[in-house]
Amino acid sequence: MSDNIRIVAKFTARAGKADELKKVLNAGVKPARAEEGCVHYDLYRSVEDGNVFLFHETWKDAAAVAIHGEQPHFKTLMAEAEPLLAQPPEVHKF
């Protein structure tokens, strides 16, 4: 059985802030993919509601997830995204 951790994280932009949020979230994709524990890391924008973004991630194990959460690029993403969000991100781990 795999120790991989899958994460689905939903970010919802405040009205009028979706394009700005997209730039912030996109900036985190390349550095996350470069992390040793990253199996895959993709960002999607809803075709039904352009304010909704979804990260779909797979990490080698729980340690890789913990390391990701401590990375400067992740902390910057979260800090820059916060004022653009309509609500806190919804994060689910599988």
Provide an overview of this structure:
With about 90 residues, the protein is an alpha+beta fold. The chain is about 35% helix and about 30% strand. The protein contains four helices and four strands. A four-stranded antiparallel sheet has the order 2-3-1-4. α1 runs antiparallel to α4. It is globular, with a radius of gyration of 13 Å. The relative contact order is 0.31. The model has no long low-confidence stretch (mean pLDDT about 95).
**Alpha-beta content class:** alpha+beta
Radius of gyration from the CA trace? Answer: 13 Å
Task: Report the principal-axis shape.
Answer: globular
Please trace the helix and strand order, writing H or E for each element: EHHEEHHE
> How many β-strands, per DSSP?
4
List the helices and strands and how they pair.
Layout lengths: L4 E8 L5 H10 L1 H5 L4 E8 L6 E8 L2 H8 L2 H10 L8 E4 L1
Short description:
The protein has 94 residues and is of the alpha+beta class. The chain has helices spanning 18-27, 29-33, 62-69, 72-81; strands at 5-12, 38-45, 52-59, 90-93.
Name the descriptors:
94 residues, alpha+beta, 4 helices
